[in-house]
Protein backbone atom coordinates (compact mmCIF):
# COMPACT_ATOMS: atom_id res chain seq x y z
CA UNK A 1 0.00 0.00 0.00
CA UNK A 2 1.18 3.54 -0.64
CA UNK A 3 2.11 5.86 2.18
CA UNK A 4 -1.01 7.92 1.45
CA UNK A 5 -3.19 5.18 2.88
CA UNK A 6 -0.84 3.78 5.52
CA UNK A 7 -2.50 5.90 8.22
CA UNK A 8 -5.54 3.64 8.03
CA UNK A 9 -3.59 0.76 9.54
CA UNK A 10 -3.47 -0.08 13.21
CA UNK A 11 -6.18 1.01 15.62
CA UNK A 12 -8.71 1.99 12.92
CA UNK A 13 -8.46 -1.43 11.29
CA UNK A 14 -8.93 -3.11 14.65
CA UNK A 15 -11.90 -0.89 15.45
CA UNK A 16 -13.79 -1.55 12.23
CA UNK A 17 -13.06 -5.23 11.99
CA UNK A 18 -13.45 -6.16 15.65
CA UNK A 19 -16.20 -8.54 16.56
CA UNK A 20 -17.73 -5.90 18.83
CA UNK A 21 -18.74 -3.10 16.45
CA UNK A 22 -18.94 0.40 17.95
CA UNK A 23 -20.21 2.99 15.39
CA UNK A 24 -19.29 5.93 17.63
CA UNK A 25 -15.68 4.81 17.88
CA UNK A 26 -15.54 4.16 14.12
CA UNK A 27 -16.65 7.70 13.34
CA UNK A 28 -14.16 9.21 15.78
CA UNK A 29 -11.26 7.22 14.34
CA UNK A 30 -12.25 8.04 10.77
CA UNK A 31 -12.43 11.77 11.46
CA UNK A 32 -8.91 11.59 12.90
CA UNK A 33 -7.55 10.52 9.53
CA UNK A 34 -9.90 12.41 7.18
CA UNK A 35 -8.18 14.90 4.84
CA UNK A 36 -8.31 18.53 5.90
CA UNK A 37 -11.10 20.61 4.42
CA UNK A 38 -10.38 23.15 1.69
CA UNK A 39 -9.41 26.35 3.50
CA UNK A 40 -10.74 28.50 0.66
CA UNK A 41 -14.34 27.51 1.40
CA UNK A 42 -16.22 26.80 4.60
CA UNK A 43 -18.38 24.33 2.69
CA UNK A 44 -16.61 22.32 -0.04
CA UNK A 45 -19.98 21.50 -1.61
CA UNK A 46 -20.26 25.14 -2.63
CA UNK A 47 -18.05 24.18 -5.57
CA UNK A 48 -20.76 21.88 -6.96
CA UNK A 49 -22.67 23.52 -9.79
CA UNK A 50 -26.33 23.87 -8.97
CA UNK A 51 -28.99 23.10 -11.62
CA UNK A 52 -30.79 25.90 -13.41
CA UNK A 53 -34.62 26.10 -13.23
CA UNK A 54 -36.46 23.93 -15.76
CA UNK A 55 -39.82 24.67 -17.41
CA UNK A 56 -42.55 22.51 -15.81
CA UNK A 57 -43.80 21.13 -19.15
CA UNK A 58 -40.40 19.52 -19.76
CA UNK A 59 -40.83 17.20 -16.80
CA UNK A 60 -43.47 15.14 -18.59
CA UNK A 61 -40.97 14.44 -21.37
CA UNK A 62 -38.30 13.69 -18.80
CA UNK A 63 -40.55 11.14 -17.09
CA UNK A 64 -41.08 9.45 -20.46
CA UNK A 65 -37.33 9.20 -21.00
CA UNK A 66 -36.87 7.74 -17.52
CA UNK A 67 -39.48 5.07 -18.25
CA UNK A 68 -37.59 4.12 -21.40
CA UNK A 69 -34.66 2.65 -19.44
CA UNK A 70 -35.92 2.35 -15.87
CA UNK A 71 -37.24 -1.14 -16.48
CA UNK A 72 -36.42 -4.55 -15.02
CA UNK A 73 -34.59 -5.36 -18.22
CA UNK A 74 -31.78 -3.12 -16.97
CA UNK A 75 -32.31 -2.28 -13.29
CA UNK A 76 -31.55 -4.73 -10.51
CA UNK A 77 -33.47 -2.61 -7.98
CA UNK A 78 -35.21 0.74 -7.82
CA UNK A 79 -33.08 3.89 -8.35
CA UNK A 80 -31.91 5.82 -5.31
CA UNK A 81 -33.88 8.97 -6.18
CA UNK A 82 -36.26 8.83 -9.14
CA UNK A 83 -37.33 12.44 -8.65
CA UNK A 84 -33.75 13.69 -8.88
CA UNK A 85 -33.22 11.45 -11.90
CA UNK A 86 -36.16 13.13 -13.65
CA UNK A 87 -34.61 16.51 -12.77
CA UNK A 88 -31.31 15.47 -14.39
CA UNK A 89 -33.10 14.30 -17.53
CA UNK A 90 -35.22 17.47 -17.64
CA UNK A 91 -32.10 19.64 -17.52
CA UNK A 92 -30.64 17.69 -20.44
CA UNK A 93 -33.87 18.10 -22.43
CA UNK A 94 -34.00 21.83 -21.67
CA UNK A 95 -30.52 22.19 -23.12
CA UNK A 96 -31.12 19.71 -25.97
CA UNK A 97 -28.18 17.68 -24.67
CA UNK A 98 -27.76 13.92 -24.33
CA UNK A 99 -28.71 12.55 -20.92
CA UNK A 100 -25.39 12.13 -19.03
CA UNK A 101 -24.57 8.78 -17.40
CA UNK A 102 -21.42 7.87 -15.43
CA UNK A 103 -20.09 4.60 -14.11
CA UNK A 104 -16.94 3.24 -12.52
CA UNK A 105 -15.09 0.63 -14.55
CA UNK A 106 -12.64 -1.47 -12.56
CA UNK A 107 -9.93 -4.03 -13.21
CA UNK A 108 -9.77 -7.66 -12.14
CA UNK A 109 -7.22 -10.45 -12.65
CA UNK A 110 -7.20 -10.26 -16.46
CA UNK A 111 -4.97 -7.77 -18.26
CA UNK A 112 -7.00 -7.53 -21.48
CA UNK A 113 -10.63 -7.07 -22.41
CA UNK A 114 -12.56 -10.22 -23.29
CA UNK A 115 -16.10 -11.40 -23.99
CA UNK A 116 -17.56 -10.26 -20.62
CA UNK A 117 -16.40 -6.69 -21.20
CA UNK A 118 -17.86 -6.65 -24.72
CA UNK A 119 -21.19 -8.02 -23.49
CA UNK A 120 -21.37 -5.46 -20.69
CA UNK A 121 -20.59 -2.56 -23.03
CA UNK A 122 -23.19 -3.85 -25.47
CA UNK A 123 -25.72 -3.95 -22.64
CA UNK A 124 -24.91 -0.32 -21.82
CA UNK A 125 -25.31 0.49 -25.51
CA UNK A 126 -28.76 -1.14 -25.43
CA UNK A 127 -29.73 1.15 -22.55
CA UNK A 128 -28.48 4.15 -24.54
CA UNK A 129 -30.55 3.00 -27.52
CA UNK A 130 -33.69 2.92 -25.32
CA UNK A 131 -33.00 6.51 -24.31
CA UNK A 132 -32.43 7.54 -27.93
CA UNK A 133 -35.75 5.99 -28.97
CA UNK A 134 -37.51 8.23 -26.46
CA UNK A 135 -35.31 11.32 -26.88
CA UNK A 136 -33.41 12.04 -30.08
CA UNK A 137 -30.16 13.42 -28.54
CA UNK A 138 -29.92 10.09 -26.67
CA UNK A 139 -27.50 9.33 -23.85
CA UNK A 140 -23.87 10.25 -23.21
CA UNK A 141 -22.15 7.44 -21.30
CA UNK A 142 -18.79 8.05 -19.62
CA UNK A 143 -16.70 5.25 -18.10
CA UNK A 144 -14.55 6.39 -15.18
CA UNK A 145 -11.62 3.97 -15.21
CA UNK A 146 -10.70 3.24 -11.60
CA UNK A 147 -6.92 3.13 -11.86
CA UNK A 148 -6.69 4.17 -8.20
CA UNK A 149 -8.57 1.05 -7.10
CA UNK A 150 -6.50 -1.19 -9.38
CA UNK A 151 -3.27 0.22 -7.93
CA UNK A 152 -4.56 -0.32 -4.38
CA UNK A 153 -5.36 -3.93 -5.28
CA UNK A 154 -1.74 -4.56 -6.21
CA UNK A 155 -1.87 -4.46 -10.01
CA UNK A 156 1.23 -3.14 -11.76
CA UNK A 157 1.10 0.19 -13.64
CA UNK A 158 1.83 -1.66 -16.90
CA UNK A 159 -1.03 -4.13 -16.42
CA UNK A 160 -3.41 -1.32 -15.46
CA UNK A 161 -2.47 0.71 -18.53
CA UNK A 162 -2.77 -2.30 -20.86
CA UNK A 163 -6.21 -3.26 -19.61
CA UNK A 164 -7.65 0.24 -19.61
CA UNK A 165 -6.25 0.88 -23.11
CA UNK A 166 -8.35 -2.09 -24.23
CA UNK A 167 -11.42 -0.70 -22.48
CA UNK A 168 -10.92 2.74 -24.04
CA UNK A 169 -10.84 1.16 -27.48
CA UNK A 170 -13.94 -0.96 -26.85
CA UNK A 171 -15.79 1.99 -25.32
CA UNK A 172 -14.91 4.35 -28.16
CA UNK A 173 -16.26 1.86 -30.69
CA UNK A 174 -19.65 2.20 -28.99
CA UNK A 175 -19.55 5.98 -28.71
CA UNK A 176 -18.68 6.07 -24.99
CA UNK A 177 -16.17 8.42 -23.40
CA UNK A 178 -13.61 7.45 -20.77
CA UNK A 179 -11.43 9.15 -18.17
CA UNK A 180 -9.10 8.05 -15.38
CA UNK A 181 -10.30 8.42 -11.81
CA UNK A 182 -6.77 9.17 -10.64
CA UNK A 183 -6.54 12.10 -13.03
CA UNK A 184 -9.87 13.48 -11.80
CA UNK A 185 -8.63 13.39 -8.21
CA UNK A 186 -5.33 15.00 -9.17
CA UNK A 187 -7.09 17.76 -11.12
CA UNK A 188 -9.38 18.47 -8.16
CA UNK A 189 -6.39 19.56 -6.09
CA UNK A 190 -7.40 20.87 -2.66
CA UNK A 191 -11.05 20.09 -3.42
CA UNK A 192 -10.28 16.36 -3.20
CA UNK A 193 -11.60 16.11 0.34
CA UNK A 194 -13.51 13.27 1.94
CA UNK A 195 -17.27 13.46 2.34
CA UNK A 196 -18.31 14.00 5.93
CA UNK A 197 -18.98 10.72 7.67
CA UNK A 198 -22.21 11.95 9.26
CA UNK A 199 -23.42 8.44 9.90
CA UNK A 200 -21.44 5.41 10.99
CA UNK A 201 -20.29 2.91 8.39
CA UNK A 202 -22.56 -0.08 8.75
CA UNK A 203 -21.13 -3.40 9.84
CA UNK A 204 -22.83 -5.02 6.85
CA UNK A 205 -21.16 -2.71 4.34
CA UNK A 206 -17.76 -3.09 5.98
CA UNK A 207 -18.14 -6.86 5.98
CA UNK A 208 -18.93 -6.70 2.25
CA UNK A 209 -15.80 -4.64 1.58
CA UNK A 210 -13.61 -6.99 3.58
CA UNK A 211 -15.10 -10.01 1.80
CA UNK A 212 -14.34 -8.37 -1.55
CA UNK A 213 -10.80 -7.54 -0.43
CA UNK A 214 -10.27 -11.17 0.53
CA UNK A 215 -11.08 -12.09 -3.08
CA UNK A 216 -9.34 -9.36 -5.05
CA UNK A 217 -6.90 -7.39 -2.91
CA UNK A 218 -3.26 -8.31 -3.63
CA UNK A 219 -1.50 -5.42 -1.92
CA UNK A 220 1.08 -5.61 0.84
CA UNK A 221 -1.31 -5.02 3.76
CA UNK A 222 -4.04 -7.24 5.17
CA UNK A 223 -7.42 -7.54 3.40
CA UNK A 224 -9.00 -5.61 6.29
CA UNK A 225 -6.55 -2.75 5.81
CA UNK A 226 -7.08 -2.90 2.05
CA UNK A 227 -10.83 -2.59 2.59
CA UNK A 228 -10.32 0.41 4.87
CA UNK A 229 -8.08 2.12 2.32
CA UNK A 230 -10.71 1.46 -0.35
CA UNK A 231 -13.40 3.02 1.84
CA UNK A 232 -11.31 6.14 2.45
CA UNK A 233 -10.52 6.48 -1.26
CA UNK A 234 -14.19 6.30 -2.15
CA UNK A 235 -15.14 8.97 0.37
CA UNK A 236 -12.75 11.30 -1.44
CA UNK A 237 -13.51 10.15 -4.98
CA UNK A 238 -17.29 10.38 -4.62
CA UNK A 239 -16.84 14.08 -3.82
CA UNK A 240 -14.53 14.61 -6.80
CA UNK A 241 -16.89 12.88 -9.23
CA UNK A 242 -20.01 14.78 -8.21
CA UNK A 243 -18.13 18.07 -8.56
CA UNK A 244 -16.67 17.13 -11.96
CA UNK A 245 -19.96 15.83 -13.40
CA UNK A 246 -22.88 17.58 -11.71
CA UNK A 247 -26.29 16.84 -13.17
CA UNK A 248 -25.41 13.25 -14.14
CA UNK A 249 -26.89 9.82 -13.43
CA UNK A 250 -24.46 7.44 -11.75
CA UNK A 251 -24.71 3.79 -12.80
CA UNK A 252 -23.42 0.99 -10.60
CA UNK A 253 -23.50 -2.80 -10.83
CA UNK A 254 -23.52 -2.92 -7.01
CA UNK A 255 -26.62 -2.91 -4.85
CA UNK A 256 -27.86 -0.21 -2.50
CA UNK A 257 -26.04 -1.66 0.53
CA UNK A 258 -22.94 0.08 -0.89
CA UNK A 259 -24.76 3.39 -1.54
CA UNK A 260 -22.41 5.22 0.85
CA UNK A 261 -19.52 4.68 -1.62
CA UNK A 262 -21.19 6.50 -4.52
CA UNK A 263 -21.53 10.25 -5.22
CA UNK A 264 -24.04 11.56 -2.69
CA UNK A 265 -25.29 14.43 -4.83
CA UNK A 266 -26.12 12.26 -7.87
CA UNK A 267 -29.02 9.84 -8.41
CA UNK A 268 -27.92 6.21 -8.54
CA UNK A 269 -29.16 3.70 -11.13
CA UNK A 270 -28.58 0.14 -9.88
CA UNK A 271 -28.06 -1.87 -13.06
CA UNK A 272 -27.45 -5.44 -14.14
CA UNK A 273 -24.06 -5.85 -15.77
CA UNK A 274 -24.45 -8.13 -18.81
CA UNK A 275 -28.13 -8.97 -18.95
CA UNK A 276 -31.15 -9.29 -16.72
CA UNK A 277 -30.34 -11.42 -13.68
CA UNK A 278 -26.55 -10.94 -13.88
CA UNK A 279 -24.83 -8.36 -11.70
CA UNK A 280 -21.28 -9.69 -11.37
CA UNK A 281 -18.81 -7.19 -12.81
CA UNK A 282 -17.29 -8.16 -16.17
CA UNK A 283 -13.71 -7.47 -15.08
CA UNK A 284 -14.02 -10.15 -12.40
CA UNK A 285 -15.26 -12.81 -14.82
CA UNK A 286 -13.07 -15.33 -16.64
CA UNK A 287 -12.67 -14.60 -20.34
CA UNK A 288 -15.37 -17.17 -21.03
CA UNK A 289 -17.96 -17.66 -18.29
CA UNK A 290 -20.71 -20.32 -18.63
CA UNK A 291 -24.23 -18.87 -18.45
CA UNK A 292 -25.15 -21.16 -15.54
CA UNK A 293 -22.27 -19.78 -13.50
CA UNK A 294 -23.33 -16.21 -14.20
CA UNK A 295 -26.79 -16.91 -12.79
CA UNK A 296 -25.29 -18.04 -9.46
CA UNK A 297 -22.86 -15.16 -8.96
CA UNK A 298 -23.63 -12.12 -6.82
CA UNK A 299 -22.89 -8.58 -7.95
CA UNK A 300 -22.65 -7.09 -4.46
CA UNK A 301 -18.87 -7.04 -4.07
CA UNK A 302 -16.97 -3.82 -4.58
CA UNK A 303 -14.03 -3.62 -6.97
CA UNK A 304 -11.43 -3.56 -4.18
Descriptive account of the structure:
By secondary structure, the protein is α/β, with parallel strands linked by helices. It has a single domain (3-296), classed as HUPs (Rossmann fold, 3-Layer(aba) Sandwich), CATH 3.40.50.620. It is 45% helix and 8% strand. The protein is built from eleven helices and five strands, in the order ααααβαβααβαααββα. The chain has helices at 11-17, 23-33, 58-69, 82-94, 115-134, 147-152, 157-173, 181-188, 203-216, 223-244, 291-296, and strands at 99-105, 139-145, 177-180, 249-252, 268-270. The protein has a five-stranded parallel β-sheet. β1 (99-105), α5 (115-134) and β2 (139-145) form a beta-alpha-beta unit. α1 runs antiparallel to α2 (23-33) and α3 (58-69) crosses α4. The protein starts with 10 loop residues before the first helix and ends in an 8-residue tail after the last helix.
Amino acid sequence: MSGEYACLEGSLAVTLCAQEYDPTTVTAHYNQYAPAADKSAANPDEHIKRPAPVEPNIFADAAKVLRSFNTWTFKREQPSDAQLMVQVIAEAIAGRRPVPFLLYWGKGPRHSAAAPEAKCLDFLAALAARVRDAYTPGAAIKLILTDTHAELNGHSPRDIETYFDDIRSEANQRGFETCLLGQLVKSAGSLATAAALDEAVSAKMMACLVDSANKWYRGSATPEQGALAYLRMNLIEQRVVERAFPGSIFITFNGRQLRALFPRQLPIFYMYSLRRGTSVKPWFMPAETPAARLESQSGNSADA
